[in-house]
Amino acid sequence: DTEVTQTPKHLVMGMTNKKSLKCEQHMGHRAMYWYKQKAKKPPELMFVYSYEKLSINESVPSRFSPECPNSSLLNLHLHALQPEDSALYLCASSGGLGVYEQYFGPGTRLTVT
Amino acid sequence: KNEVEQSPQNLTAQEGEFITINCSYSVGISALHWLQQHPGGGIVSLFMLSSGKKKHGRLIATINIQEKHSSLHITASHPRDSAVYICAVRRETSGSRLTFGEGTQLTVNP
């Protein structure tokens, strides 16, 4: 199984809502990533987890809160987002933090109204 | 100047044509990735290269480390190859971070 799954596929939320994005992989990968992608732009790295510990936070605002409950699961909790946070949120995983291929999920299309 | 430059930005081809997308980078790298993104989002990893050449079906990727240049070739192109192709490098000093090019939008017409 070389699949990374993400739910939901689409999410519309108001600026006062709290929601969560979910990512799952069953490849035994030890590193998991959150990316944000705006239209016609490459992905921007947000967070990296390695062995369930936060390894990289690319100065992401605190209204985005990542969580890695176990080695297969990665969540992104959203609270008090702004319209400019509307984007495609991509999850990826890799064997580790070294030179490994990254496997991407299909993404969650987030719209903040 | 971006550390990873792709050319062309947009490419339109007729079905069956041979296609080349180029990627140049200006930093020392431990690996280079070619990724494919279809409309609607999901990214597929096509190749990870640190030297030489790799082939998978109709796709061929090459890298010249001395010249800091990589190419992605598609033989016998098909409309289903229409997608954005993204070059990304793993810098020697950046651990797991990827530095992405801006992507090449490929459209293959029947």
The helix tally of chain A amounts to 0
By DSSP, the count of extended strands of chain A is: 11
Radius of gyration of chain A: 13 Å
- Please give the oligomerization state of what you see: heterodimer
Count of alpha and pi helical runs of chain B? 0
Structural class of chain A: mainly beta
Greatest contact between two chains: A-B, 27 and 23 residues
The shape of chain B, in one word, is globular
Order of helices and strands of chain B: EEEEEEEEEEE
Mean pLDDT, all residues of chain B: 94
- Biggest sheet architecture of chain A: 7 strands, mixed
Number of strands of chain B: 11
**Beta-strand residue percentage of chain A:** over 45%
Structural class of chain B: mainly beta
Helicity range of chain A: under 10%
First-residue to last-residue Cα separation of chain A: 36 Å
Rough outline of chain A: globular
